[in-house]
C-alpha cells in the first residue's frame, strides 16, 4: 500500500514532485486552478469592473442609404 503516500501526506508528496518533476507539477497545478477561475472571475469582473454583457458582433455590413457615389479623378491615365 505504498501508493497511498498522497492520501497520507499530500503536501510532502507535492513538495517532492515540485523538486523532482517541476514541469509536471506546475502543469497539474495550473490545470487545477483553471476551473476554479472560471467560476470565480466572472462575478469579480461584473462587480468591480462593471463589465456587463457585450454588444453583439454584426453579422452583415450596413449598407449606406441612397445611390452609390462614384469617386472622380482616380482613374488610370490614358
UniProtKB/TrEMBL annotation:
Nucleus as a keyword of this entry, yes or no, is: no
**Transmembrane ranges?**
23-44
Which keywords are on file for this protein? Membrane, Transmembrane, Transmembrane helix
Which stretches does the entry tag as region Disordered? 59-78
Q: Which PANTHER family match?
A: OXIDOREDUCTASE 9.5 KDA SUBUNIT, PUTATIVE (AFU_ORTHOLOGUE AFUA_5G08980)-RELATED (PTHR38488)
Q: What is the name listed in the Swiss-Prot or TrEMBL entry for this protein?
A: NADH-ubiquinone oxidoreductase 9.5 kDa subunit
Amino acid at each position: 500500500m505504498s501508493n497511498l503516500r498522497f492520501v497520507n501526506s499530500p503536501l510532502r508528496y507535492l513538495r517532492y514532485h515540485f523538486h523532482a518533476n517541476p514541469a509536471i507539477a506546475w502543469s497539474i497545478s495550473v490545470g487545477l486552478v483553471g476551473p476554479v477561475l472560471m467560476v470565480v472571475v466572472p462575478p469579480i469582473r461584473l462587480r468591480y469592473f462593471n463589465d456587463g454583457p457585450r454588444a453583439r458582433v454584426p453579422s452583415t455590413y450596413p449598407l449606406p442609404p441612397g445611390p452609390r457615389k462614384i469617386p472622380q479623378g482616380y482613374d488610370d491615365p490614358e
